[in-house]
Amino acid sequence: MIGNIWQLIILNPLINILIVLAHVLFGNFGLAIIVITVIFNLLLYPFSRRQMKLTKAQQDMAPKLAEIRKKYAKDSQKLAEEQMKLYRELGISPIGCLLPMLIQMPIWFALYQSIMRVMVANPEGFANLSNYLYSWSVVYNALPLNSHFLWFNLATPDMLLALLVGVAMWLQQKMAAPLVADPQTQAQTQTMQLMMPIMFMFLSMTFPSGLALYWVVSNLFRIVLQYFYSGWGGLATTAESMKKLFSGRGKTPPQKYIKK
Amino acid sequence: MKSKKRFALLASLVAAVLIIPLWGGCARASTTIARGWSGLAGADGQIIYLTTTAGTSSGFMGCSTSDSQSHLIVLSGSDGGVLDTINFQESTLFYSTPTVSNGYAYVAGYNGYIYRINLSSGGTPQGVSPNKSKAQPIIGGIAVADGRAFVGSVDGTLYALDAVTLGTLWEFETGNEIWATPAVTGGIVYVGSFDKTIYALDAATGDRLWSHDTQGAIVASPVVSGGLVYVASLDRHIYAFDAVNGSLVWQFPATDTDMPSWFWATPALVDGKLYAPNTDGRIYVIDAGSGELTVQLTTSGSIVSDPVFADGRVVVVTEEGDIYTINTASQEFESSPYQLRAAGEKANLKVRAPLAAANGTVYIQAIDPGKVFEYDPLTREAWEIGTRTSTATSPPTSAPVTVTVTETVTTTG
């Protein structure tokens, strides 16, 4: 039942829009993926901005949070109370940080499903596609879509594109990551910053590269957005640390590249 | 402390490298599982079909392993018993229906190889790829005539091969993938392509005699009869072309529907009527000479398998396994459909393979659960092949189903 509603009001319109878009863009499905990804990102901009704002606020409160943790290290109840107090003072809701992400999730999921259904990898996929089509003649005339874009086939995995997914995601995460004073939390954050790009890179190696293209474009869009919001962020710190590591100097992360 | 963290990081990375691809592979497979949909062929009192059985072991995290096995099964046409099982050396899926000629079965695999199998002696089939640079998947079947075998590939090329050696005689490149089985008659080979064009080629030389565009990809095999070539297109039209010069004689549009509508199946031509099933669940019965709609019959769901003529009736099966029998004299359903699903089969049963008929019996291969059924159009009962035990939960009724007669559709010359 829910599946039918999802298909009727989300999936079917999106699939048909993608096909029409590809038809308008000279039969190029790669361009259609890029355009629709950018449109979606623009539509979701208010939520993305809110998320970045919250990340920045968390970043700003990190020193105070570390201080509280140090002060109430042996009293967990008091620590929790003080943390909540600090959140309230700065107007941050820990659950509120998740809200923008939760709103975006169904949209990303719908886009992912649409690309997977249109960019079929086998005859069964093409046969199933007819279940999602509107009776518009433009849709029928547009099919089958040209699966070639740049150097890759959108219906099959591409190693180079998978690598680009990993790199773009790592850059975006580095830029967006809040500064963490606590070494343990910092280590966890760094692990996550590596794990996610690696995970998506390997996923891209098994999925049709149309999906990888969507991930790359999404990440590039967020990189641009992040740059205009908070500069190079944690990426500048990483770059400086790397530079010093290779030149044999200290490890103190500079703050001067981070936009206030 | 530092080394502990590094170890944890390294362990996490190794775990990610090992586990994620497996999960990714399964996740991808779960979106559209390729199973193939090969049909059956009958010859000399035998029925043959292709199947690929899954391996016995189950892989990590529920992913099936690749130890599947492909077979060509030879059945007795009289009792459905297995006469022979020929194993392929390599495992592949089959979307093409085997063709039998001079005691040999011609089989095209999704792995891009073509097999010529001696049905008397059996043995392990040796495959030949018509594409010498890289084997490309083959979805359509092989047409055999006058010592030549014709097959289209997803590389967009129609290959003419020597029917004995399978050596390439000539190649003809189209603008997109070829999924359709070619049709050969009177020294002309006809084939439709994903480039939305029907081609007529000289069977001896591969020279283009004529070609004609449609507005959609062509998956169905052309039907050639009475000097006309009938072509079903994914643009929701049936076309009739002059077989010799390629001029358009008529076209029939099935565009008065909001349902998803493709002519995927190859129509059946019986007594001057084309029975053209559509993914909109309708069967359009069209006058083959004029292109005018006689009746349209509404079924329960999408139809992609080719209908078949048996015992004075046309049998059509929906994707969900509802079997409809049409009386060709009255162009009406003879009864309510026989439901394979209601007869205890799995709810996700899928029928996409072309139907076959021999000695008045219709053969249906269901992709899932991977079974072959016999259907008797006279008694309107079905059995799993070889069992001869009725799977009907209730006897089929004889009351005719109401037939929707629509207005005559204008055709173009």
* Helix-strand category of chain A: mainly alpha
End-to-end separation of chain A in angstroms reads 49 Å
Count of helix runs of chain A: 11
Spans of at least 5 consecutive residues with low confidence of chain A: none
Taken as a percent bin, the fraction of beta residues of chain B is 35-45%
Which consecutive residue ranges of chain B, at least 5 long each, have pLDDT under 50?
17-30, 56-65, 390-413
Helix tally of chain B equals: 1
* Quaternary form: heterodimer
Q: What average pLDDT do the residues of chain B reach?
A: 83
Rg of chain A (C-alpha, Å): 22 Å
Main interface by residue count: A-B, 33 and 43 residues
- The backbone outline of chain A, from C-alpha atoms, is elongated
How are the strands of the largest sheet of chain A arranged? 1-2
How many domains of chain B, as an integer? 3
Work out the strand percent of chain A. under 5%
Enter the CATH topology name of the largest domain in chain B. Answer: Methylamine Dehydrogenase, Chain H
Shape of chain B: globular
